[in-house]
């Protein structure tokens, strides 16, 4: 779920009503999360009303009344003795985002959920802590055996719309930034701002960011995993990038990225090369204007490559930028950092 509402609102999140009882099963917010199974139990008030995506999971076991509330894989409340021996009867109606006072009706507009819901699943058993856990990528692969979000037909009513939800996956992204003379100070500052904007495009995502800079020699400026995505230190470190000038040896920089970036074993991999595509000979006298070999080596290491044009637009070598990433539709300008961020997530995470 994702919402900017507050827990002081009265909100029907998931409602199941049968003719015998309109609160046969209900997840309701009123000063915190409340679970109704005919009767109700106030479970807790985790901080999830911040406009970011959060995973909420509640469990209940009839035999001993044990209940639990998890937020983002972390246990936030629990107890026992709730409605021991109770049963949830069949033949009712499920409603998302409203509380039913009669089967499929009796709605109160003041109790409507405002926000986004996704991956609403229901099981006829209690999930284990490992299944509920904080691994968002694994959470997205769960499928309820009573209600499976991916296969259940959902009808829309009122002011409700449907959009594609992109599951979180683990991604390591390294920026390879050209600091050479052909870029110039002004365009370097554009590149630095692009990286800052790019990082701000992600919400609750498992993304690690690294930065490699290069002129004559490539250098690791920010190692992958040095900062968490939401760490203010990451933005501060990016702002600390300084322009140097010098020759442009892009192939050496791509080779350095492939060999030294320390990508996580479980993470998908991407690199974004910010350059004008112009380069000089490297220290061994080899021409580095043709990036195809080092780019192919990177792709062989399962690193998806993207290029972003910086520098004087008249001097940008579009052929070289395409050679870096292998496909013309992976060449971007600096106008929309979030377009690049979303494209990487779409390509890698589906």
TrEMBL record:
Which gene is the coding source of this polypeptide chain?
NPTX1
Q: Which residues form the Pentraxin (PTX) domain?
A: 1-169
Superkingdom, natural source: Eukaryota
This chain belongs to the protein called NPTX1 protein
VWFA domain location:
172-348
**Names of required cofactors:** Ca(2+)
**InterPro entries given in the database record:** ConA-like_dom_sf, Neuronal_Pentraxin_Related, PTX_dom, VWF_A, vWFA_dom_sf
Species, as recorded: Branchiostoma lanceolatum
The record's section on Pfam families has: Pentaxin, VWA
Alphabetically, the GO molecular function entries are: metal ion binding
- Entry-linked PROSITE patterns: PTX_2, VWFA
* Leader sequence residues: none
> Which keywords, in A-to-Z order, does the entry hold?
Calcium, Disulfide bond, Glycoprotein, Metal-binding
């Amino acid at each position: 779920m994702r919402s900017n509402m507050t827990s002081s609102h009265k909100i029907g999140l998931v409602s199941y009503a049968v003719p015998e009882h309109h609160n046969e099963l209900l997840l309701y917010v009123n000063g915190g999360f409340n679970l109704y199974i005919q009767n109700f139990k106030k479970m807790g008030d985790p901080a999830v009303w911040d406009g970011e995506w959060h995973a909420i999971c509640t469990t209940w076991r009839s035999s001993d009344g044990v209940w639990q509330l998890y937020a983002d894989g972390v246990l936030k409340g629990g107890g026992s003795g709730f409605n021991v021996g109770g049963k949830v009867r069949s033949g009712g109606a499920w409603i998302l985002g409203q509380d039913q006072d009669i089967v499929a009706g009796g709605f109160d507009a003041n109790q409507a959920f405002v926000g986004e819901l996704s991956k609403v699943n229901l099981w006829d058993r209690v999930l284990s802590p490992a299944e509920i856990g904080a691994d968002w990528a694994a959470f997205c692969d769960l499928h309820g055996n009573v209600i499976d979000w991916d296969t259940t037909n959902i009808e829309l009513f009122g002011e409700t719309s449907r959009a594609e939800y992109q599951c979180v996956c683990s991604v390591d992204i390294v920026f390879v930034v050209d600091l050479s003379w052909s870029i110039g100070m002004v365009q370097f500052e554009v590149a630095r701002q692009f990286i800052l904007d790019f990082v701000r495009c992600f919400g609750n995502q498992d993304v690690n960011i690294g930065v490699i800079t290069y002129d004559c020699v490539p250098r690791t400026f920010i190692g992958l995993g040095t900062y968490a995505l939401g760490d203010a230190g990451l933005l501060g470190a990016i702002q600390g990038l300084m322009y140097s000038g010098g020759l442009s040896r892009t192939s050496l920089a791509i080779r350095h990225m492939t060999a030294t970036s320390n990508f996580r074993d479980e993470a998908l991999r991407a690199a974004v090369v910010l350059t004008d595509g112009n380069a000089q000979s490297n220290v061994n006298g080899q021409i580095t204007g043709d990036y195809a070999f080092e780019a192919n080596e990177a792709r062989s290491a399962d690193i998806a490559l993207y290029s972003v044009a910086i520098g004087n637009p008249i001097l940008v070598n579009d052929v070289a930028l395409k050679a870096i990433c292998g496909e013309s539709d992976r060449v971007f300008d600096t106008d929309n950092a979030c377009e690049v961020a979303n494209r990487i997530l779409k390509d890698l995470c589906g």
